[in-house]
Amino acid sequence: MSTLPLSKPHELDDCPEARRWLIEGLWADQAVGIVGGEPKCCKSFLALDIAVAVASGATCLRRFPVAQTGPVLLFAAEDALHIVRRRLAGISRAACVAFETLDIHVITSPSLRLDRSDDRNRLQETVDALRPKLLVLDPFVRLHRVDENVVAEVAPLLAYLRQLERRFSTAVLLVHHARKGAAHARAGQALRGSSELHAWGDSNLYLRRKDETLLLTVEHRAAPAMAGLVLELRTQDHAVALHVADHAPPATDPDPPSPQERIELTLAASTTPLSLRELRSKSRMRTATFCQALATLTAAGRVLRSNLGYSLPTQ
């Protein structure tokens, strides 16, 4: 039996500074990661803006320079193709890029399932043929039928995407939703499903709203995180695109979660239903406040009670 290949630290290749970024400060070179956030927070607009930037060399969000360009492979599972076309055309106009020259290749298959071996093989063959600089998959929930809360089911799908990144030197961007009731959770912890999703990403971008303000948080595995940025969805000459706002993000701290939100956060963080005692202990509230909040949530259908305990409705 042959041994595994080994190298000493000083023998490992050093990555030149010029190749550490795909988009400077926003997405690392050959990084896998997630664009995540709550519903209606412009996740798809951000993913498409990144795609246009990589495919054309235009500044992303009118702020972040592109370090490397190349073909982009895109699968948009939730939007009709004419909507994808309209959004890409608008972003191209905002970025001053000729729409017809975009090196973006849209997968037009009606479905793509990463939990099916035939679909995985077809995607791998497509990546092998195109050798894209970036693969965009939007959203994760439409790419499988596994339980996102079970590590053993989610991990193989993420491992497959990591394999594509390493074998074909392509960055992978996965659009994913936030948990229900996780508005006050830390950005990465707010992602729906297993914590494996947060841990998987080399570069992760999170969108959320504070009142009417759209905030972007940037995290990297091997670079400092970026302070929250304010984004705006602007329309100019029929071009709809995200821009980094000129004004700074709100200086005030976010409001603490309400008792109802604390219960929802506790349930969102659990992969199994919780008993009344477990839920009260983990929520860390006075008994009277807890009971009143839980009764309100149960009556509204925002928390479900079963023989196994309390849980959030299936999303």
Note down, in words, how this protein is organized.
The chain is an alpha/beta fold and 315 residues long. It folds into 2 domains: 18-244, Rossmann fold, CATH 3.40.50; 259-311, Arc Repressor Mutant, subunit A (Orthogonal Bundle), CATH 1.10.10.10. It is 30% helix and 22% strand. The chain has 8 helices and 13 strands. It has helices at residues 43-56, 81-94, 117-130, 151-168, 196-200, 259-268, 276-283, 287-299, and strands at residues 21-23, 27-28, 32-37, 72-76, 104-106, 134-138, 171-177, 203-210, 213-220, 226-236, 239-244, 304-306, 309-311. A 9-stranded mixed β-sheet has the order 5-4-6-7-3-8-9-10-11, with helices on both faces. Strands 1-2 form a two-stranded antiparallel sheet. It has a two-stranded antiparallel ribbon with strand order 12-13. Strand 8 and strand 9 form a beta hairpin. The longest helix is centred in the middle third of the chain and has 18 residues, at 151-168. The radius of gyration is 21 Å and the shape is globular. The protein starts with 20 loop residues before the first strand and ends with a strand.
Summarize the structure.
The protein has 315 residues and is α/β, with parallel strands linked by helices.
* Strand content range: 15-25%
Succession of helices and strands? EEEHEHEHEHEHEEEEHHHEE
Helical segment tally? 8
Shape: globular
Quickly give the structural class. Answer: alpha/beta
What is the average per-residue confidence, as pLDDT, rounded to a whole number? 89
Largest sheet: 9 strands, mixed
Task: Tell me the radius of gyration.
Answer: 21 Å
- Uncertain regions: pLDDT < 50 for 5+ in a row? none
* Count of discrete structural domains: 2
CATH domain fold name of the largest domain: Rossmann fold
Distance between the termini: 48 Å
Strand runs, count: 13
Q: What strand order characterises the main sheet?
A: 5-4-6-7-3-8-9-10-11
CATH architecture classification name of the largest domain: 3-Layer(aba) Sandwich
DSSP helix fraction: 25-40%
- Within CATH, the superfamily of the largest domain carries the name P-loop containing nucleotide triphosphate hydrolases
What's the CATH first level of the largest domain? Answer: Alpha Beta
